[in-house]
Design a protein that fits this description.
Elements: H1 2-6, H2 17-38, H3 41-47, E1 51-76, E2 82-107, H4 110-118, E3 121-133, E4 136-145, E5 150-173
Antiparallel strand pairs: 1-2, 2-5, 3-4, 3-5
């Protein structure tokens, strides 16, 4: 029941498609600024990549089940094209809590970037411990990526969670913002 309450929480805010796109752009800027402050090498990695994607995800874990959903943007560094996207995640394992996550994917392989934008599947295993609110608290995370040629960074914005889960995530184009 709690997961159902949060399932609609992670959407780009705004009344119009233009306002929602501006909200996504702002989230992307904030997430990249945070990433570069923690890992300066990531900035050069993005510049030299084929493309990258930045997502905001509300993630809920209750005992054996987990779910998350969110929004984001994929940027093709070669053409400059932007693709607004959505995501949903389901998982099984052990966990309890909720957190607000920013995930940054950096694609060093053109075909994998294209596949992500067009087909969007990503599978992963996760182990996380986080207790953070605004700038107070700490977070330690590890995400296993099973695909070579893709760097994945996760930043915890706010939340309290302890979990060990195997999850599947689906990313797809947000047709309402194109």
């Amino acid at each position: 029941m709690m997961m159902a309450l949060f399932s609609g929480c992670a959407t780009a805010q705004g009344e119009t498609a233009e306002e929602k796109r501006a909200y996504v752009h702002n989230m992307k800027r904030e997430a990249l600024t945070s990433l570069f402050a923690e890992n300066a090498a990531a900035k050069e990695s993005i510049k030299s990549s084929e493309g990258y994607a930045v997502f905001s995800n509300i993630n809920i874990k209750i005992f054996a089940l987990g779910s998350g959903n969110g929004f984001g943007i994929a940027v093709d560094n070669k053409s400059g094209a932007e693709t607004f996207m959505r995501m949903a995640e389901v998982g099984v394992g052990l966990g309890l809590g909720a957190k607000d996550i920013r995930t940054i994917f950096i694609f060093h392989d053109r075909d994998k970037f294209h596949q992500f934008v067009e087909e969007g599947w990503s599978f992963g295993a996760e182990a996380a411990a986080a207790a953070k609110s605004d700038d107070k608290g700490a977070a330690a995370e590890s995400e296993a990526s099973f695909v070579e040629g893709i760097e994945v960074y996760q930043l915890t914005d706010a939340g309290l969670m302890a979990s060990a889960m195997v999850s599947g995530t689906k990313y797809w184009k947000d047709e309402d913002l194109h």
